[in-house]
Amino acid sequence: MKRRDVIRNISMLPIAGAMPFASLSAAPTQAYSNFDPNTDLFSELGVTPIINALVTMTFLSGSLMLPEVLQAIQSTAHDFANMYELQDKAGAKIAEMLKVEAAMVTSGAACALTIGTAACITGNDPQKIRALPNLPGPPKEVIMQKSHRYLFDQAVRNTGVKIVDVTGAQEMEKAINGNTVMALFFNAADESSITHEEFVAIAKRHRIPSFIDAAADVPPVENLFKYQQIGFDLITFSGGKMIRGPQSAGLLFGRKDLIEAAKLNHSPHECPIGRPMKVNKEEIFGMYAALKVYLQKDHQKEWQEWLDRIQFISTHLSSIPSLVAETTIPDGPANAFPGMLISWDQGQVRISPAEVVKQLLEGRPSIFAGSRKDKLSIGVVLLKPEQVAIVAKRIKEILMKAMQ
After folding, report:
1. CATH code of the domain occupying 299-401
2. Which of 44, 272, 293, 363 is deepest in the core (most CB within 10 A)?
3. pTM for the full model?
4. Where are the alpha helices (DSSP H) in 218-280?
């Protein structure tokens, strides 16, 4: 019997047939192994735990999940759920929190790009959904500014579309034709030849959906609401960065008809392009919990805590001759939070920032930092409170040794 037949026939099961098993629901979960939950799996696998003294990066496992997210995962891992129902109901609550028509949890922002594009191509047409990425006829087209082309447009091209590069509003107007299905705005691009407002206005004038990739663009928290207010039809944010949800979770939200079409192109449906990008129930619950906490937290207090960390490290290093510590806040929109740049006279402290980065990474504990323009780059927002002093101490040890 196929899985779809099992699902279809669940409602047909007689109540009496379930009665012999009713008593099992109250039984405690049986332990099937002698696994010790206190086992150090990092040590067992030979994996080095890393202190992330830079920014959120996927290859460094994103960010650390909030305690509330871990609790949400733990509390929901012991029961099954109908994934269609969970996605619908979690999405409805998320949409309510974000003040949009509809929302869903995806397996990261990259998945949102793929299934969001698919939604713009297929709508709710089951034949088109099954055919992706090999629709008959000429390829569908997605408009992007030339300066916005980036590695993650691969997630869009997975649907079989052709990306059309444009520069300026006039070129965008001329590029739209009968094959155009979507216009994509990469929010973290270094430059734009078309403003957000112009981009949306042109798309609306030609009745094509506009999609903005804002994956790493909180803080500030206001960005979660800004782009829908401008008028973008689809918006994606990563869940595993500064929202601090599960690393493999993301948010896709916007127009209800497009979100419903995106769901049809995603798991748990069995045939669509998004089936390999499934998001499990614990991640959906975890992403929901993370967003609740993020929207409710005192963002000004958190910002001050980050500045206090920079001040602590700066003070700890102040005895190093010629050392200068600067607080930096990128203009954004991505990674727009406080960090620090540290420099020194390499005639007095005979080591380069690049060598300090190397020694930090190779030391124990292993600390991941960066160098930029011959300065040591240190991020503080991903440090656990107890790690701030560890990072300050290790940097000072390395620099002091270089003076000997």
Report:
1. 3.90.1150.180
2. 272
3. 0.90
4. 223-230, 256-264
